[in-house]
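Colleagues,

Please find the record for the two-part complex below.
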Amino acid sequence: MSARLRVGVTDMTNLLKNRETQLAAVILLMLVLIGFVNPDFIAPSNLLSVYTESSILIILALAQMLVVLTRCIDLSVAANVALTGMVVAMINSQYPDLALPAVIAAGILLGTLLGMINGLMVWKLGIPAIVVTLGTMSIYRGVVFLISNGEWVNAHEMSSSFINMPRTEIFGVQGFAIISVLIIAAVYIFTEKRPLGREMYAAGNSPTAAFYTGIDVGRTQFWAFTISGMLSGLCGYLWISRYAVAYVDVALGFELQVVAACVIGGVSIMGGIGTVLGCVLGALFLGVINNALPVIGISPFWQMAISGSVIVIAVIANSRAERKVGRIILRKATLARG
Amino acid sequence: MDGIMSQTTQAKATTGVSWMSRLKTWEAFLLLITAVVFVLNTQASPYFLDPWNLSDATFNFTEKAVVALPLALLIICREIDLSVASIIALCSVVMGLLAQAGFSIPVLVLGSLIAGTFCGLLNGVLVTRFDIPSIVVTIGTMSLFRGITYIILGDTALKNYPSGFEYFGQGYVYWVFSFEFVSFLVLAAVFYFLLHRTNFGRRTYAIGNNPTAAFYSGINVARHRLILFCLVGLFCGLASVMLTSRLGSTRPTIALGWELSIITMVVLGGVNILGGSGTISGVVIAVFLMGLVTFGLGLLNVPGIVMSIIIGLMLIAVIAMPILLRRFKQRRG
């Protein structure tokens, strides 16, 4: 009896020490405080719309998490979103009769391809991920300009199904939210149950140990980039239909928000640590801030500085939690090759 | 197997011949490309060789190059600073506010340098005290510093700079040699001396090659890194003086995205992004190469965003090339 009780107590303290619980508590506290200033903000319907607004960030944060788990980073996600978004928008405006699933599939395919390019360079050439994706970030963004000639694709040039599909409501829940919930479930199953998902944790946790267990670390990183690209491609479509306009600077700088969401969610930038729940909460944290600022009368110009300080605070908190593991970021695991 | 690999590299380092020759070929290679671009530019436009035109060409890279010098040391030391462009923006705001309050030019310059050093100090303290990877810290401070400029400026601009302030960005020391360009050359010499001729420089390499070994051989690794972060901040302050003086106004988007081109300059110059190796002469040649490429493309009326494609390709190609060459040699040998 007492033993069981003690187990219960440790469970409780573990739960309190748990990163996700703390983050969820912070978000709840934030919601309560915002609720004092503006009760409308915490009405269930508004909370749902805050979630819906955060959908794209959630999906991209999950994609980033997979990459970061393998000790890499993908700074090209926002540029990928802009490029695939522009391509699907142009396809849609040129061929309005083309079935929507085909258009979306084209976007996802292109996004996957762009992710594979990153992954191949990391895997086959061994270039540090940060260099590869800094490079492809500006290349992909530049290609958006090349294919569009710097022109915009506006709402009236897009078909109504193209714009409205993610807005379709099922039981009052918009498509954006439903899609993000499906992606969350898929990534959860992938990271918890699929061998490749487990390999990503292993590859990031200790590449040398992973190598000796027979995991091809480079290949694992390649797949992480590929999935990141695939989800970015999907978000390219979602972004364009959400804002109903495509132009060169779409999602400019959004990669920082995405990385921030991961860091806040407790994903270790040194690889190997991170959960789907934490990552989603990290994205929601930023989503709540972004949506609440105008409501409580703070200029949106504060948004950037706030997310910046939140990142810094979050990494300090993370570093305390991870102190026992002394690892160095950016140094590629020196694998015994041949 | 790790041991064997590091032993061979050590052996190479001690004999010095192959190591030096490799560095020399890298710089020779860069120099060759620079020469080719130079010739191509003379073909692209008959006005290219005009001394005033060439002098104008230097303006679009010297400010970035001034930051690239200390950043090279920081990257050699296995750290990175992605917040450089945001520091430049924040320093510019500090100067703008000081100018608005009616302070004199020396106070503006000093204010910018102090603000920059302080930002660098913040990065350095976060990295060294809390043991956080610099890439995350500086992604955070990058939006923090830029965010502060947005909070202060919103969508307005500061432009009441005192007369005479424009000298730093627009003035000429002698004939076609601008203040910016001459400062860069002097600073490059200073950094060459610092990295290649002093204990400080040797320590930088030692830490970059193996921080643990450096620590056990008595180097204060944390302090060394802290100093380098401050140095990068200080030079962001200096670059901000030049840039603000050249533009004559401060907007929140000033120097937006510069971190990419500054890091590209450093990496293009042969500095290993994983730390441990790199030279100032390589960085200086890379600065000229990038300056010539952008200027040449400008002569051909290539829009800025297309240049960013080329810079991105250059960044990747330049890092991929030695890897591919090494693999090719291994396959043959």
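The longest strand of chain B covers residues 172-174.

Comments are welcome before we finalize the supplementary table.
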